Amino acid sequence: MKLKSVLFILCSSFSSYLCLAQTDSADFTFSINFQPSFHNSSHLMLSRKHLDNYAELIVNDDDWVSNNIDARSVTELYNFLLAYNYQIKGSIDTVAVSKRFHNGDSTLVYTVSAGTDGITTKGLFVQGNKSHAFEFWSPKKGSEDLMLVNLVFKILEKSFTTEKATSYIAQVKTYYQ
What we know:
- By secondary structure, the chain is α+β, with helices and mostly antiparallel strands.
- The strands form 2 sheets. It has a 6-stranded antiparallel sheet with strand order 4-3-2-1-7-8, covered by helices on one side. It has a two-stranded antiparallel sheet with strand order 5-6.
- It contains 4 helices and 8 strands; from the N terminus they run αββββαββββαα.
- The chain has one domain.
- It is globular, with a radius of gyration of 23 Å.
- Helix 2 runs antiparallel to helix 3.
- The termini are far apart.
- A hairpin with a 2-residue loop joins strand 2 (about 40-50) and strand 3.
- The chain is about 35% helix and about 40% strand.
- It has helices spanning about 1-20, 70-85, 145-160, 165-175, and strands at about 30-35, 40-50, 50-60, 60-65, 90-100, 105-115, 120-125, 130-135.
- Mean pLDDT is about 85; it is low at about 1-25.
């Protein structure tokens, strides 16, 4: 009888140790860089570990940290990131493809659009041992990329409330309207 009790306690302790050593499946790190044409670039790092949220926004020499992050907004962003279509797209977009024929040969002709006045957005979502990178240029209205940015701004506007931070966030946000 004593042996069974000792084994039960050992198994329970080992099981508890394993549970504490594991990370929550919803733990993640998300970073995004905003690189506007005519304003300073910035870097936002947002992380959630054991349901505690942390954010840091860096613009030049300014480094703002916030632990006062709306958990619902972070969960909304997290759920969006799980389904997001991660792609690397630069400031040159293919807007049309056509096939041309000449002397019996066919050639694909790509029509491209290049941007110079807008914003490059780059980011990385890391969860466990998986990472997903993305990059896009001035997203179109209604696009998945713009939805992502709007979720990020929802968190930024609630988390960073100093006058200097809100001014910068408002300036960068104009690139997405």
